[in-house]
From TrEMBL:
CDD domains: CE4_DAC_u4_5s
Stretches that traverse the bilayer: none
GO cellular component: extracellular region
GO biological process: carbohydrate metabolic process
Cellular localization per UniProt: Secreted
Main location: secreted
Protein name: Polysaccharide deacetylase
Domain NodB homology, residue spans: 84-291
SUPFAM superfamilies: Glycoside hydrolase/deacetylase
One of the Pfam families matching this protein, by short name: Polysacc_deac_1
GO MF, one annotated term: hydrolase activity, acting on carbon-nitrogen (but not peptide) bonds
Keyword list, A-Z: Signal
Keyword Signal on entry: yes
Length: 354
């Protein structure tokens, strides 16, 4: 996650904008966890700040759609997408969503989704919802999605675990969660949210066996070219939930990245990254102001090859630490709207290594 103030210029010059690209449908998926002042700030927004977010959407005529409708429309092309469409999602099924966020959303008649890690619900752990509360939400039209059974770091193999054993373990975890939601709620989830936002191509292959969409946890908007099993969501949490950042998030458009090549190559957990090469299509963004930053806000050097597709080589040089790491690339829209095009690349470093 990054503040708006780190958006600046990097040395890139890309081809002319395509007028047709301005009409491409897009939407933004927002991610919350707790709506409470008494839970860890890193995964919480206060009820007052959450209400301020909703007030902004209402005051600026945003359309709040169910996340499945937004994804089917934008990625699947199933219906026309108007301007200013967002979806609201919550991971982990915390009780504050039921007691604090739910009344605010019901008052406005707005849909939302809750992604459930089922083992915690079965164990009755606090501060999670109960199955009765989740049934209430489902009866009100709330989408209940799969967030795994264990909420483990599914991307990583356990010590001594073979690749095939890992696949079997993860597949069983996903199936167990889906079965429990079906038993308790009466619906088989079609959308999965990756625990900790940790996704990979191989993990997505397992998710895609039983789910149409997989939701990640990195900044960016959804566009027609978005990978349906690696959908970006803007995380909202204390320190990154101010109104300036919220406005930036909901006004974001998808940067048309058609390929991302990390060096060294690989999938899943990896060692330090040396570089990242992106291939971009033309679009209605100011290419000369494209900027890429580490998650810590450090501006990264880049070189450019004109296309299309245009190729941007970003020097990472081992930056990053154990766990999740991100590179954020942004460029202002060329239509004078003040919007930003955004792309985020994530990798997980130094857990279980090949």
């Amino acid at each position: 996650m990054m503040m708006a103030r780190v958006i600046a210029m990097v040395l890139v010059v890309v081809g002319a904008a395509s007028p047709a690209a301005a009409q491409e449908p897009h939407g933004v998926v927002l991610l919350y966890h707790h709506a409470s002042a008494d839970t860890p700030p890193s995964t919480s927004v206060t009820p007052e700040r959450f209400e301020a977010h909703l007030d902004y959407l209402e005051a600026h005529d945003y359309r709040v759609w169910p996340v499945d409708r937004l994804l089917a429309a934008v990625i699947g092309g199933e219906e026309a997408v108007p301007a200013n469409v967002v979806a609201i999602t919550f991971d982990d099924a915390y009780e504050s969503v039921y007691t604090q966020a739910r009344p605010m959303l019901r008052e406005r008649g707005w849909p939302f989704a809750v992604f459930v890690n089922t083992d915690a619900i079965d164990a009755g752990h606090s501060p999670y919802m109960s199955w009765d509360q989740l049934r209430d939400l489902h009866a009100e039209g709330v989408l209940i999605g799969n967030h795994s059974a264990s909420h483990a770091h599914l991307i990583a193999r356990e010590e001594g675990e073979s690749r095939e054993a890992w696949k079997q373990r993860v597949a069983a975890d996903l199936e167990r969660a889906g079965r429990r939601i079906d038993e308790a709620i009466g619906v088989q989830p079609d959308i999965f949210a990756y625990p900790y936002g940790e996704d990979s191509a191989e993990l997505a292959g397992l998710v895609g066996d039983d789910h149409a969409f997989g939701l990640a946890q990195r900044s960016g908007a959804v566009g027609p070219g978005t990978d349906p099993l690696s959908v970006p969501r803007f995380p909202m949490a204390s320190g990154f939930d101010g109104m300036d950042r919220f406005e930036l998030a909901v006004r974001t458009r998808p940067l048309p990245v058609v390929e991302a090549e990390p060096e060294p190559p690989g999938d899943g957990v990896r060692g330090p990254l040396r570089s990242l090469r992106l291939a971009l299509e033309d679009g209605t963004y100011r290419a000369a102001q494209l900027a890429c930053y580490s998650a810590g806000g450090e501006r990264l050097q880049a070189s450019f090859e004109e296309g299309p597709p245009h190729r941007v080589d970003i020097r990472v040089d081992g930056r990053g630490s154990t766990g999740r790491n991100k590179i954020n690339c942004t460029a202002p829209a060329s239509d004078g709207s003040g919007d930003y095009f955004w792309y985020a690349f994530q990798w997980v470093q130094d857990a279980v290594r090949d």
